[in-house]
């Protein structure tokens, strides 16, 4: 009787496995799928940079309270202020400006690009240069490169200045922006 129980126990172990499957081990044995983006459905490396930030829909704001002012005769007058609606690109520019102020040089670079290209706002080289210089001060290599570009070619009211362009290209190279290294070598 003891032998038959022992034989049945050995057979059950052989047939059904000695241990219950561990979900953590089983999960690690399965072949993992490569990272897939949600927009393209193509595998991309995990170290790929994030896609550019797009404008998000603003949260609905409560209706503004009517503004009450007192006119010349001492009577109260109710004035309704009209809400200005911004396009998604204008919202993105506004967000980029706020993040630039919060010490992020890459966002200053983005603001400068908006002013340099003039697609969303009117093209303004002086504003672009201010944004690029602020981004360069916050160690953005791309912003330094674009500031050097503006000084190299003297766009708008910005005069041609070889020394400043060379300095900005060198900073760009030091911050790891390869195009800045190439521009510095070409100007030197």
Task: Explain the overall architecture.
This protein is mainly alpha-helical and 188 residues long. It has a domain at 88-187: Serine Threonine Protein Phosphatase 5, Tetratricopeptide repeat, CATH 1.25.40.10. The chain has eight helices and two strands, in the order H-H-E-E-H-H-H-H-H-H. It has helices spanning 2-16, 23-29, 88-101, 105-117, 125-137, 141-153, 162-174, 178-187; strands at residues 67-70, 76-79. A two-stranded antiparallel sheet has the order 1-2. Strand 1 (67-70) and strand 2 form a beta hairpin. Helix 5 (125-137) crosses helix 6 (141-153). The model is unreliable at 22-31 and 35-39 (pLDDT under 50).
The string of secondary-structure elements, in order, is HHEEHHHHHH
Could you state the CATH homologous superfamily of the domain at 88-187? Tetratricopeptide repeat domain
Instruction: Please compute the radius of gyration using only Cα atoms.
Output: 31 Å
> Taking all residues together, what is the mean pLDDT?
75
Main sheet overview? 2 strands, antiparallel
Overall strand count: 2
The CATH architecture of the domain at 88-187 can be named as: Alpha Horseshoe
**Poorly predicted tracts of residues:** 22-31, 35-39
Would you state the CATH class of the domain at 88-187? Answer: Mainly Alpha
Number of helices: 8
Strand order of the largest sheet: 1-2
Shape estimate: flat
Distance between the termini: 96 Å
Tell me the β content. Answer: under 5%
- Helix coverage percent of residues? 40-55%
Give the structural class.
Answer: mainly alpha
Protein name: Beta-lactamase
Catalytic activity: a beta-lactam + H2O = a substituted beta-amino acid
Subcellular location: Secreted
Main location: secreted
